[in-house]
Amino acid sequence: METINFIEKFIIYIEDHIRESIDYDRVLDDMGVEPKSFITIFTSLVGMTPYEYQSRRKMTEIAYELEAGHRRLIDIVKYYGYYDVDSFKRAYQGAFGISPYETERLMDKLDLTERISFEVVPVDRPKYPSRYVDMESFRITGAVRTFSLHDYDSRMKYEFLAYLEENNILDELLRYNNGSIKGIVMHERYIDGEMELTIGVSSSLESPFEDTYTETSQFVIFEAQGVPSVTAQEIYQYVFRRWHLKEPRDLNCNFSLEVLKSQREFTSDHTRVQVWQALYDEI
C-alpha cells in the first residue's frame, strides 16, 4: 500500500507541474528514491514512464482547451511552454495525428490520457503461478541499446524486440543459448541517466554480440501466455498491486528481467512470458 500511495503522490506532483520541465532525477534524489527502482514501479503500475505520462497528460489538457475555445492558440502555446506555434503544431500532430485546428471536430476520436488513480484489490487466489529461485549472476549475450531516460518508454523495448525478430537476429542469438535460462532474455537497467536495454540469451559462448551481467539475487518468477507487451505489463501490475501487498518481501527494482519462450514468433499471443522479479535478501 505504501508503494501505491507514493506513486499517487508523485502523480499529484506531476499534475501540479504539468507545464514545467521536470528534472525527475533531481526530484527523486531529493525524495531519497533511487530513479531506476521508482521508474520501473511507476511504469509497471501506470503503463508508461513518468515522462510519457506528463507529456500525454499535458497534450490532453491542451486538447480540452482547444475544444473549449476560450483562449487563442498563441496563448495556449505560451502557457504550456512551447517555443513557438510551429513547434507546438508538430508536437500536437505527433501526439494525436491531427492538427490543433481539427480538435473540435475529431475530439471523440483522440487518444486522451486522463489523470490516473488506483484501486488496489488484494485477493487470496493467485492470478499467476509463481516460484522462487536463487540465481547467481549470469551473462547475457545479445543486442544492446541505450535510451535517454526522458525519451524512453516501454513501447521502445517491444519495437526493438520486433526488429530483432523480423531480421532473424533472435534465431541467431538462440544458437548461443547454452545457459541455464532457456529463451530470449530482456534485461533493463538504469545507468548514469540512461536506460540500458539488452535483448539476448543466457550464454557462456563466444559470440559477435555484446555482453552484460545480471545481479545475483533471489527471484520470484511469474508466468503467463500472451503477447509480451501486454502480458508482461499485466503481470507487473499484479505484482505491485496485489502480490506485493500479501508478501513481506522487499522488491529489488534496480533492474528488470523478463524471459520469453515460444515455438513460434516471440511477439505472438502464443509466447510464454516470464517476469523474474528480483527480491532483496531477507534480514
From TrEMBL:
Q: Which UniProt keywords apply?
A: DNA-binding, Transcription, Transcription regulation
Keyword DNA-binding in record: yes
Say which domain of life the source belongs to.
Bacteria
- Which ranges carry the HTH araC/xylS-type domain? 8-106
Query: GO MF terms on file?
Result: DNA-binding transcription factor activity; sequence-specific DNA binding
Q: Tell whether Ribosomal protein is among the UniProt keywords.
A: no
Stretches assigned to coiled coil: none
Q: Which SMART domains match?
A: HTH_ARAC (SM00342)
**What is the protein's name according to its record?**
Helix-turn-helix domain-containing protein
Write down the species: Salinicoccus hispanicus
